[in-house]
Write a structure and sequence with these properties.
The protein is mainly alpha-helical and 152 residues long. It has 2 domains: 111 residues; 37 residues. 87% of the residues lie in helices and 0% in strands. Helix 3 runs antiparallel to helix 4.
Length: 152
């Protein structure tokens, strides 16, 4: 049954959202107080935190909604592929789900203003290697066999 974790912790979604709104309000009042008192370091830090919160919220929202849509999409495609009796559907659907989840996580991290350049640096060669494997497995192998038969 869904929601057991929240029930076990004696939490409600409305309580969590209310706590987030209260914390945001407290931060705004603390920022105003630190500005009045002339605490520039504290004010700059709190301003940076308050400016980052919308990016964090948008990234988490993209991640949560994206994972839900991804799960629905892959379940739908799995049903279609099994209905059409597509060979290897039990391999293609998890691969598609993993790839789209990776793209979704990178998109969410970019939205949260987290530097993901190292991931792109590592994923580029991996993608090229995968492309070469796929090309040799399904594309070039038949062409090479046909060319060798033609030369005989």
């Amino acid at each position: 049954m869904k929601g057991k974790g929240l029930e076990a912790a004696n939490l409600k979604i409305s309580g969590i959202i209310a706590g987030i709104v209260k914390a945001f309000g407290y931060l705004i009042f603390i920022l105003a107080a630190s500005n009045i008192l002339g605490l520039d370091v504290v004010s700059n830090f709190l301003a940076a935190v308050l400016n980052y919160i919308p990016s964090l919220f948008a990234g988490v929202l993209i991640l949560v909604v994206g994972l839900l849509v991804l799960d629905l999409l892959t379940d739908y495609l799995k049903g279609i592929m099994e209905g059409m009796e597509v060979e290897g559907s039990n391999v293609w659907i998890p691969l598609l789900k993993g790839f789209l989840a990776l793209v979704l996580v990178l998109l969410a991290l970019d939205t949260m203003l987290i530097d993901t350049s190292i991931f792109y640096l590592l994923i580029g060669p991996l993608a090229w290697g995968l492309a070469v494997v796929v090309a040799f497995k399904w594309g070039i192998k038949e062409a090479l066999v046909a060319y060798a038969k033609e030369k005989k």
